[in-house]
Amino acid sequence: MSQALNIVQIKNIFHQVFNLKISKSLTAKRLRISRDSVDKYIHLFNQANLSWPLSTAISDQDLLQLLITQNPKQIKPCRQDIDFKEVHEILSTVKGATISAIYEEWFTKLPVYEAAISYSQFARRYQNYKEKLRISLRTTYKPGECIYVDYSGMTVPYIDSITGEVKQAQIFVGVLGYSSFTYCEATSSQSLEDWIMSHVRMFKYFDGTSELVIHDNLKSAVTKAHRKEPELNTSYLRMCEFFNIIPFPARPYHPKDKPKAEAAVLLVQRWILFKLRKRQFFSIAEINQAIAGLLDYLNKKPFQKIEGNRYSRYHEIEKHHLNRLPNQVYCYEYWGKVSVGLDYHIVIDSKAYSVPYQFKGKLLEYCKTAELIKFYYQRQLIASHLVCEATQVGSTKVEHMPKNHQAVHQYTPEFIRLWSKGIGHECQDFCEAALLYFSTPFQRYRFFSSFTKIVNNINDDVLISTLCFQAKLKNTFEIQSMRLLLKNLTLIAQYQNSTDKTPESYIQHQNLRGAEYFIDKNIDQESNNE
Asked: What is the pTM of this model?
């Protein structure tokens, strides 16, 4: 009994018999089909007057139709129960899946005597199935509830007046949910700072904030996208906290989560960007100046289906429901995370900033503004610095150092000059020479920490002056040599003090021989000699 085979199996039969010259029995064994099936399809092939190899102009579908027409009694109507649910799931989940590829798989598995629908009919049936799945939730907007923001896909070209390079300005769009009152501006990029400051200017334009701001999943807003629990950028989150507004990211690849933003972007492209396409700009400020007039026209353009316009609905209703702006002016803050190095310093923008040495190796949060940079550990402020200028390499505070490092840092040239000035002129001259001799802080620390101890232990100002004068004269800048020189100067001073002394009276004692004894003795000897 013959089997109903698909087009791939049928072509394998022809390949085995005509190309490889294998018998029909062996072909049936190799393909694991009945001998009757092999005979039947070879017979249909011959009846259709086909030749092997087949012409490239004959497709699989054409070959199938030629074979079917040789035995019309066996033709079955095409099945209507195609599993489009499975087709939709494959297209939604499998990367690279297309309708044409799925149709080819379905066609090759179809038995030879079952009529096949065309690709266009297959695609049309799938489209009808997908339309049944689309049920939209009607959204009702409350005044002051939502602000929708997004970037336009269209950009505005401008010529950099300094470099002459043609750049593309990004278009930020924000819209109030209830009134559709729209704001847009041009920025140089979609960077974090441009993204945040566009929000700040938008809130000022609206003269208030809503409860929610619904946005896309761009990197400046969302660090890690997730369907239910996305991870927000810390800098953006802190800006929202400042304005008391809740950020709410839309789901990835779900534009219906932010329909107002999509509609506003489309209107901005049609009524603003289209009118600017023939104008030439040389800065972002020029583009924003041109946008401002067209934006006012867009907001005052009458609605088609309801009375009024965006401007009137905003001023009459929604403006009174917006939250007030904070009294304090917002300054851009960049928040990040960084680990403390072994030298208890953190490098940001090629500048090193110190923190207390106890936090060595810890992961800290930092907040950088235009003037100040602050470091936090577990939400507690532990250090702050003024932002270093371009010529500076960093900022180190003495109180952040351990005691032994503070000692090294103490011996600065200013400290040494001030100390030597209080000792004397000779000491001051010697210290100036030593500062020239020792170029690094560690060399200065090693020498002056010992030298100051030596000087402070001498109670004789003359000896100190002599020591400094002799050391400078002999170009001696080693502590051992200084100590030896001090020892010699001390011995000399002691000797001079002993020779300069004259006794005020002699001690009288019977065992002591005075000068009279030797004078009398010499006289007696002379008389004896005579």
From this structure: 0.58
